[in-house]
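Reminder to self: tokens first, then the designed residues, so the page reads top to bottom the way the pipeline ran.
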């Protein structure tokens, strides 16, 4: 059944007719799909269509399940390649606009990482009542069945609320190549266990120590002093999967660097001499939350109070956000909070700019990007106050925390050999799959190791390059903000890849009518499909003409009978494009013939259609024109 929270949200945002018009039934599965041309309907869901996307937004659920199984999928942009890649979030308050924000972040992150995959994200809306472990697994299995419809468009990984074990559940259901960040016994890269994202954060900081002296040409950095590694101090907001691993890796990559402050759900710790990172990391692995237990342990060791037999150097507060009032050379925001810093208290940031500590660089381990205009404006205000006025360099999230998706991508880039693909007949049978995995354990472990080694080398290279490009852009334009520079890096890569896309990459399905149908039937098809054009096909599926909105308008004005044959009103001289025609070819044909849509034809068979609106929204053609060489 549809999750109650999801049903209530959709009932409030969209009239029943709008849902029914887009509803696709597949057995007990239900899908409500919106494309890039559904601007008004997407706006009702809080999603603003722009030149990047989204390409597809789906509300989906299992009508027949006794559990509440459902959620959302957003495929934002496929310019870098197919499929779109991004995690599955599982939270009760998920809405389509939240999933779209995350999908856009993946579009930019995958582009920044120069991966040949688009950006997407999905979200499970769990039942209100608590789930037993078995019921939770069944919800994930049910969501996997929903996602199976979009296997060519979207590849999931773990995100907040899901984990590598959930990706194993999806792979058992849909196949080894249907999910990434699987356990090693499936040849996966164990992203959280390996600290893939955290490693990228540390590499970025290491690279910035070399790149930042170039910023001294800017007024706010004229007195910049980059400390030697032995004097480097770091604050980490969010001692979790990313933050804890980042702290642990600092001692390996930057020996002598001191983590002087950390926070988690229970509070924050600060010690200017440096915290015992290795001990805290082991404790986090065992217990999760570390700040309060560790502080109480230190109080006991000091004799029962802070004024006991030996003085305590360490500071503890039960207010985690107050960590951001402390000072260090580098802040790593790694808590699951998008708005860690802001100028307006009403936006409820973790800390306001007027109360923040003194930092020189912020390397964002948390997902902070949003395409929402209001949030982008708030972000720009924060960057003007922090970057321009206080001289704090901000390394935007998707430029530096792409380690996870880089590791995940290796599970596609280094393909699963045919001999290691789970037999189709076993899919969905967990016991059978487990036996099959056990029989191929050595080969899968070797595959996982190959992917890990490739991922580490790729991550190091691409994140160092991103830091170099970021500083290049900021030095070349004193008015540019870090967020603008980061977006330019990603969009420039998307636009470069975009120039090679073809009609086959961009086309949408075209409604068709039989050559024997009537004027009335053809007009009804255009209305029902919300399409400017329909293909008229013969008995063998060959294209014999098209019916356009203009054809219908002209025939109506001339008083054509509704039962007149469609062949009497259709356009016979069809302007079409081939599947391998490029964007410029398509644009030139539309403009030269002054038409708004045309079919994509291979031989005499119609494959789809492209429209002026589709190219404007999906192809980034205007961005291609505006990008500097």
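Designed residues (629 positions):
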């Amino acid at each position: 059944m549809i999750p109650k929270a999801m049903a209530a949200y959709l009932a409030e945002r969209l009239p029943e007719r709008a849902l029914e018009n887009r509803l696709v039934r597949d057995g007990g599965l239900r899908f409500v799909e919106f494309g890039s041309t559904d601007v008004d309907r997407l706006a009702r869901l809080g999603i603003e269509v722009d030149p990047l996307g989204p390409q597809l937004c789906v509300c989906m659920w299992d009508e027949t399940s006794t559990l509440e199984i459902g959620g959302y999928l957003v495929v934002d942009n496929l310019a870098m390649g197919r499929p779109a890649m991004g995690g599955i979030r599982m939270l009760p308050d998920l809405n389509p606009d939240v999933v779209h924000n995350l999908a856009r972040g993946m579009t930019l992150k995958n582009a920044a990482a120069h991966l040949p995959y688009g950006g997407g994200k999905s979200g499970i809306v769990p039942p209100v009542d608590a789930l037993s472990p078995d019921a939770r697994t069944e919800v994930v299995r049910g969501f996997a069945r929903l996602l199976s419809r979009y296997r060519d468009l979207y590849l999931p990984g773990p995100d907040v609320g899901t984990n590598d074990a959930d990706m194993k559940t999806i792979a058992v259901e849909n196949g080894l190549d249907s999910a990434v960040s699987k356990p090693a016994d499936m040849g996966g890269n164990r992203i959280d266990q390996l600290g893939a994202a955290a490693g990228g954060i540390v590499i970025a900081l290491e690279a910035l120590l070399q790149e930042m002296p170039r910023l001294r040409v800017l007024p706010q950095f004229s007195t910049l002093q980059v400390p030697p590694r032995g004097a480097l101090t770091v604050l980490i907001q969010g001692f979790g999967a990313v933050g804890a691993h980042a702290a642990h890796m600092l001692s390996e990559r930057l020996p002598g660097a001191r983590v002087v402050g950390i926070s988690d759900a229970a509070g924050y710790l600060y010690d200017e001499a440096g915290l015992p990172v290795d001990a805290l990391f082991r404790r986090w692995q065992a217990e999760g939350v570390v700040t309060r237990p560790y502080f109480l342990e230190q109080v006991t060791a000091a004799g029962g109070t802070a004024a006991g037999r030996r003085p305590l150097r360490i500071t503890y507060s039960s207010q985690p956000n107050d960590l951001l009032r402390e000072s260090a050379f580098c802040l790593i925001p790694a808590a699951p909070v998008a708005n860690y810093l802001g100028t307006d208290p009403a936006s409820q940031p973790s800390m306001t700019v007027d109360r923040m500590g003194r930092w020189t660089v912020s390397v964002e381990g948390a997902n902070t990007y949003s395409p929402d205009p209001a949030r982008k404006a708030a972000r720009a205000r924060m960057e003007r106050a922090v970057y321009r006025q206080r001289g704090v360099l901000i390394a935007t999230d998707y430029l530096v925390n792409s380690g996870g998706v880089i590791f995940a991508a290796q599970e596609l880039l280094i393909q699963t050999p045919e001999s290691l693909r789970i037999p189709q007949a076993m899919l969905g049978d967990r016991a059978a799959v487990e036996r099959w995995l056990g029989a191929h354990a050595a080969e899968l472990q070797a595959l996982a190791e190959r992917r890990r080694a490739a991922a580490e080398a790729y991550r190091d290279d691409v994140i160092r390059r991103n830091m170099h490009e970021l500083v290049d852009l900021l030095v070349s334009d004193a008015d540019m903000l870090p967020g603008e520079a980061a977006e330019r890096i990603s969009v420039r890569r998307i636009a470069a890849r975009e120039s090679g896309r073809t009609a086959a990459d961009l086309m949408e399905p075209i409604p068709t009518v039989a050559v024997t149908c009537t004027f009335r039937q053809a007009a009804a098809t255009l209305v029902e499909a919300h399409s400017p054009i329909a293909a008229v096909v013969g008995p063998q599926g060959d294209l014999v003409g098209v019916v356009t909105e203009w054809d219908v308008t002209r025939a109506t004005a001339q008083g054509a009978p509704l039962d007149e044959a469609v062949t009497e009103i259709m356009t016979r001289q069809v302007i079409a494009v081939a599947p391998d025609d490029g964007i410029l070819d398509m644009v030139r044909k539309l403009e030269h013939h002054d038409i708004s849509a045309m079919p994509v034809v291979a031989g005499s068979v119609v494959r789809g259609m492209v429209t002026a609106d589709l190219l404007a929204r999906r192809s980034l053609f205007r961005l291609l024109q505006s990008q500097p060489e």
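DSSP finds 23 helices and 21 strands in the chain.
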